[in-house]
Specification:
By secondary structure, the protein is mainly beta. The protein has helices at 89-101, 119-124; strands at 7-13, 21-27, 36-40, 46-50, 62-65, 70-76, 78-85, 107-109, 112-116, 131-138. Strand 3 (36-40) and strand 4 form a beta hairpin. The longest helix has 13 residues, at 89-101.
Length: 149
């Protein structure tokens, strides 16, 4: 769907409208934290983000535009990740501590840590009694203590 008029994304909306046109915008975890600037939708339509600075874009967010009954849906992009697990909860906690000490973004699940693929981090993980697996998945890192939801 190509629109001739410039599309400006202005805010979030709470519920997905039953009617209207939707553009999909697939973004990585890093890209979902940038709320302003030019983007290309999945169908190469130029979009300008002019969102209020109130958090990070989330998978499934619906965004309001300057065009009536026209919306943008955020899709989390699949990324190359490292999945970290261990038979020892203590070892997994130690690993999380050392990754956090290096300011590495982590998604924390029950008995699993996820982080972006990085050969330096992957090499560091050899120092711990953990299992490491390369996967491709959507990445939702922890927001941090000052932005916790």
């Amino acid at each position: 769907m190509r629109i001739n008029k410039q599309i400006v994304v202005t805010d979030w909306i709470k519920d997905k409208p039953q009617e209207g046109s939707f553009l999909k915008l697939t973004l990585s975890s890093d890209e979902r934290s940038i709320l302003r600037g030019k983007r290309l939708s999945d169908c190469d339509q130029e979009i300008f983000l002019q969102l209020p600075r109130k958090g990070k874009l989330k998978d499934g967010d619906i965004l309001l535009t300057n065009k009536s009954s026209f919306y943008v849906e955020i899709i989390a992009k699949k990324e190359n990740l490292i999945e970290i697990s261990s038979k020892s909860t203590l070892e997994l906690i130690k690993t999380a501590y050392h990754l956090g000490n290096r300011h590495v973004e982590l998604e924390i699940k029950k008995n699993i840590l996820l982080t972006k693929s990085d050969y330096v981090i992957q090499n560091m993980l050899k120092n711990f009694d953990v299992e490491v697996k390369n996967i491709i998945n959507k990445f939702f890192p922890e927001a941090g203590a000052h932005n916790h939801e």
